[in-house]
Amino acid sequence: MIRVLVASFVVALAAASAQAAEVMVHVGHSSVDPAEIKIKAGDTVVFHNIHEMPGGHTVTADDGSFESPPLAKDEKWKHTFEKPGTYGVHVKQHPTNKGVVIVE
Ligand SMILES: [Cu+2]
């Protein structure tokens, strides 16, 4: 009985450590918040547009490697970062709104 419990505990731990995380980043008229996050390869960032904007807000990689569709207020868009690196992002409609995603 105890052996079964230990075995299932070990399996649960392995599943938890292998599970990718989701991290929320808010974007709006004046910020990418938090402006810097650190995640692990395979994790997903959920970009949440918090402001009403004619035509929406778009999350764009500084190097052009990815871009969200225009997001309405309270709309979310997910991007999974598979490779380690430092990824600059900005809000297309407000290019000075910058953030950094550090993937370890
Ligand atoms: Cu705006």
What does this structure look like?
There is one protein chain. With 104 residues, this protein is α/β, with parallel strands linked by helices. It has one domain (21-103): Cupredoxins -  blue copper proteins (Immunoglobulin-like). It is built from one helix and eight strands. The strands form two sheets. Strands 2-1-4-6 form a four-stranded mixed β-sheet, with no helix packed on it. Strands 3-8-7-5 form a four-stranded mixed β-sheet, with no helix packed on it. Strand 7 (85-91) and strand 8 (94-103) form a beta hairpin. The radius of gyration is 17 Å and the shape is globular. The mean pLDDT is 90. Bound molecules: copper (II) ion (CU). Copper (II) ion is lined by residues 29, 51, 53, 57, 93-94.
The appropriate CATH architecture is Sandwich
Computed over alpha carbons, the radius of gyration is: 17 Å
Structural class: alpha/beta
Rounded mean pLDDT is 90
Strand content: 35-45%
**Continuous helix count:** 1
Q: What does the main sheet amount to?
A: 4 strands, mixed
Helix share, percent: 10-25%
The CATH fourth-level homologous superfamily: Cupredoxins -  blue copper proteins
SSE pattern:
HEEEEEEEE
CATH topology: Immunoglobulin-like
Anisotropy-based shape: globular
Oligomeric state of this protein? single chain
